[in-house]
C-alpha cells in the first residue's frame, strides 16, 4: 500500500492491477493559436463529496477508474476542503527557473564570488567565525538548534593510482595513455570557496558507482527562527524542475512497458472531453519531454484547468515549434501517465460540474502512485512528497533573510513539486543510470542523449556531463529574492552529483549551473 504524497490525510494508494485504457480516435479541432475561453468548473470540494454519494455517480466512477477507490478520492477532497478548496499558490511572479544559455563565468566573475563581502553570520549569538578553508573532519550532520558546523564536512576522495607507460620488452602491450579526469578534491574546494561567501547554505554530495566520494554541507537549511536545522544530505527541499527528470523516467518507463513509441502522438491519450486545438495532434511524447511541443505560456503555471485551456488553444505550427521551457509539458505528462497506465479511461465523464476537479485529483493520485511504485520504491526512496514538512529546507535571500516555504505545490506536479533529499535524488540517479532497473542501462543512455527530462549537456576533456537544474523563487526580480535551487549532474567516470542551495548565489543571483560548470571545467586534469 502506498501513501499519497499530497498529505497524511490521503489514504493508501493503488492495490489493484491497472487495466489498459480504451484508446479513442478523435479529430483535432483546427483553431487559430489564440487561446480559447474554455469553461472550467471548480465546485467546492464539499459539494463534490456530497455528489459522490449518488449511486449512479459512484457506479460511473467504478466503471472508469481503476486502482483508486471512492474512499481515497473522498480523502483527497477532504484534504483540499481543509485547505480552503485548493492547494497553496505561490505569488503571482513566483517562477521556476527558465532555461538559460550555458554561458560560463569569466575568471574575474568567479574570483569576485570567492572574495565577495561575507554575508552575515549564521546566527546573532554564534561565536564561530566563517571559514573558507576545508578541514579533514569526518561527516557530521547539523540537526540541532545550535549553529551548524561552519566548516563543510567531507570525505576525502580516493587516491588516484599511478599510471605508467613503459614497455618492458619486445612485443609488450603498452599501458593506455592516461585519460583526463576530474580533480574531485579541487572541485569541492573551489565550489565551497564560491558558495560559502555567496549563499545562505548548501549541501552537495558526489558518488562514484553508487558510493559517496565527496560531501559538503554548509550552514542553515532552516535558520533558528524557522526550526534551527543545518544542512545535511538527508534534509529535504523542493527540488523544482529536477522533478521533470523523475517525470520523464516514469513516462518513458510506462511507454516502453506498453509498447508505445515515444515519438507517437499524445492526442489519443488526452481526456475525450478536452478540445484539441490546432496542431495538438502533431505533439509527441518526446516533444513534451524535450520542451519542443510549441506551447508557450510565458510562465510556470501548469494546473489542470490551465493546461486544458492551453491545449484547446493549440500551438502555432506542427511540433516541434520553438523551444520554450514549459512546466505544462511535464504537467501533461502526469495526465498521460494516468490514462496510459490504465488508472482512468479517456472517455470518463462524471458530468460537467465534476469533470475538471475529479480528473485533476485522479490523474494526480495516479501519477504519484506510478512514481512511487516504479521509480521510488526500487531505489529505496521513502518520505518524498509533493508537500513540505518539518524536515523541509526554507528558501532565503543570499544573506539569510526573508524565509519562504513554498508549501503545497501539487497543482504543478509533473514539472515541479517533489520534495526530497539529495540522498534520495542520487539513489534514483544511480539506479537509473547504472542498475538497469526499471529502465535498462542502454535505454537510460538513450534518454540522456535524447535530452528527455534533462536540460542538455556540456562537453569536457573528461567526457560529456548531462545536467538538470531547478529553481523556485518568490519573485522574478533579483533584489530581495528568496530562492531554492537544485542541480543534478550525470558525469563521466561513473559519477553523479547533486547540489542544493536554499538561496540565490550572491547579490546578482548568479546562475548556479554556469557557476558549477565553470568550476568543473577548471578542475579537469589532462595528464
Shape: globular
CATH class of the largest domain: Alpha Beta
- Provide the domain count: 2
For the biggest sheet, the summary is:
8 strands, antiparallel
- Structural class, by secondary structure, is alpha+beta
Q: What is the overall number of helices? A: 13
Number of strands: 12
Unreliable residue stretches: 1-35, 97-103, 120-147, 149-165
Description:
There is one protein chain. The chain is an alpha+beta fold. It folds into 2 domains: 45-96 and 245-356, no CATH class; 149-158 and 178-242 and 378-525, Beta-lactamase (3-Layer(aba) Sandwich), CATH 3.40.710.10. 30% of the residues lie in helices and 13% in strands. The protein is built from 13 helices and 12 strands. The strands form 3 sheets. Strands 1, 3, 4, 5, 8, 9, 10 and 11 form an 8-stranded antiparallel β-sheet that branches. The protein has a two-stranded antiparallel ribbon with strand order 2-12. Helix 10 packs across helix 11 (422-435). The N and C termini lie far apart (53 Å). Residues 1-35, 97-103, 120-147 and 149-165 have low confidence and may be disordered.
Descriptors:
single chain, 527 residues, alpha+beta, 8-stranded antiparallel beta sheet
Give a summary of the structure in a few sentences:
With about 525 residues, this protein is an alpha+beta fold.
SSE blueprint:
Blueprint: H1 45-51, H2 55-64, H3 70-82, E1 95-96, H4 107-114, E2 181-182, H5 184-196, E3 201-208, E4 211-222, E5 229-230, E6 236-238, H6 242-258, H7 285-289, H8 304-313, H9 327-340, H10 352-379, E7 419-421, H11 422-435, H12 441-450, E8 456-460, E9 463-473, E10 483-491, E11 495-501, H13 512-522, E12 524-525
Antiparallel strand pairs: 1-9, 2-12, 3-4, 3-11, 4-5, 6-7, 8-9, 9-10, 10-11
Amino acid at each position: 500500500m502506498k501513501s499519497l504524497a499530497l498529505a497524511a490525510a490521503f489514504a493508501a494508494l493503488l492495490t489493484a492491477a491497472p487495466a489498459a485504457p480504451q484508446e479513442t480516435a478523435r479529430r483535432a479541432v483546427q483553431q487559430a493559436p489564440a487561446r480559447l475561453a474554455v469553461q472550467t468548473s471548480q465546485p467546492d470540494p464539499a459539494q463534490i463529496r456530497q455528489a459522490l454519494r449518488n449511486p449512479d455517480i459512484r457506479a460511473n466512477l467504478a466503471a472508469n477508474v481503476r486502482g483508486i477507490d471512492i474512499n481515497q478520492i473522498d480523502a483527497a477532497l477532504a484534504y483540499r476542503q481543509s485547505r480552503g478548496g485548493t492547494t497553496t499558490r505561490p505569488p503571482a511572479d513566483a517562477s521556476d527557473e527558465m532555461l538559460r544559455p550555458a554561458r560560463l563565468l569569466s575568471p574575474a566573475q568567479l574570483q569576485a564570488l570567492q572574495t565577495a563581502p561575507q554575508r552575515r553570520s549564521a546566527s546573532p549569538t554564534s561565536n564561530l567565525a566563517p571559514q573558507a578553508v576545508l578541514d579533514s573532519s569526518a561527516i557530521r550532520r547539523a540537526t540541532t538548534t545550535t549553529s551548524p558546523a561552519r566548516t563543510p564536512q567531507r570525505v576525502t576522495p580516493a587516491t588516484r593510482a599511478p599510471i605508467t607507460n613503459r614497455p618492458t620488452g619486445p612485443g609488450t602491450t603498452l599501458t593506455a595513455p592516461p585519460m583526463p579526469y576530474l580533480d574531485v578534491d579541487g572541485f569541492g574546494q573551489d565550489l565551497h570557496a564560491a558558495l560559502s561567501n555567496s549563499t545562505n547554505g548548501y549541501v552537495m554530495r558526489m558518488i562514484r558507482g553508487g558510493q559517496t566520494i565527496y560531501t559538503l554541507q554548509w550552514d542553515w537549511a532552516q535558520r533558528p527562527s524557522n526550526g534551527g536545522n543545518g544542512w545535511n544530505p538527508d534534509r529535504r527541499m523542493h527540488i523544482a524542475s529536477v522533478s521533470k527528470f523523475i517525470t520523464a523516467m516514469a513516462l518513458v518507463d510506462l511507454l516502453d512497458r506498453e509498447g508505445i513509441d515515444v515519438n507517437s502522438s499524445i492526442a489519443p491519450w488526452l481526456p475525450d472531453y478536452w478540445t484539441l486545438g490546432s496542431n495538438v495532434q502533431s505533439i509527441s511524447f518526446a516533444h513534451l519531454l524535450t520542451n519542443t511541443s510549441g506551447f508557450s505560456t510565458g510562465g510556470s503555471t501548469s494546473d489542470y484547468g490551465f493546461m486544458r485551456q492551453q491545449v484547446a488553444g493549440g500551438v502555432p505550427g506542427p511540433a516541434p515549434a520553438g523551444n520554450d521551457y514549459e512546466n505544462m509539458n511535464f504537467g501533461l505528462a502526469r495526465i498521460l501517465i494516468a490514462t496510459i497506465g490504465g488508472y482512468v479511461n479517456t472517455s470518463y465523464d462524471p458530468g460537467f460540474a465534476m469533470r475538471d476537479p475529479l480528473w485533476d485529483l485522479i490523474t494526480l493520485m495516479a501519477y504519484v502512485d506510478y512514481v512511487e511504485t516504479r521509480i521510488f520504491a526500487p531505489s529505496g526512496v521513502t518520505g518524498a512528497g509533493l508537500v513540505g514538512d518539518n524536515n523541509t529546507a526554507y528558501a532565503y535571500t543570499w544573506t539569510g533573510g526573508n524565509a519562504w516555504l513554498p508549501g503545497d505545490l501539487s497543482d504543478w506536479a509533473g514539472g515541479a513539486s517533489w520534495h526530497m533529499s539529495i540522498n534520495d535524488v542520487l539513489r534514483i540517479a544511480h539506479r537509473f543510470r547504472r542498475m538497469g532497473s526499471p529502465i535498462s542501462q542502454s535505454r537510460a543512455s538513450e534518454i540522456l542523449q535524447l535530452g528527455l527530462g534533462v536540460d542538455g549537456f556540456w562537453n569536457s576533456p573528461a567526457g560529456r556531463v548531462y545536467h538538470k537544474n531547478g529553481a523556485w523563487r518568490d519573485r522574478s526580480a533579483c533584489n530581495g529574492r528568496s530562492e531554492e535551487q537544485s542541480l543534478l549532474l550525470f558525469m563521466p567516470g561513473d559519477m553523479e552529483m547533486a547540489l542544493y542551495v536554499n538561496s540565490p548565489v550572491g547579490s546578482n543571483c548568479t546562475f548556479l549551473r554556469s557557476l558549477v560548470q565553470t568550476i568543473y571545467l577548471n578542475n579537469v586534469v589532462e595528464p
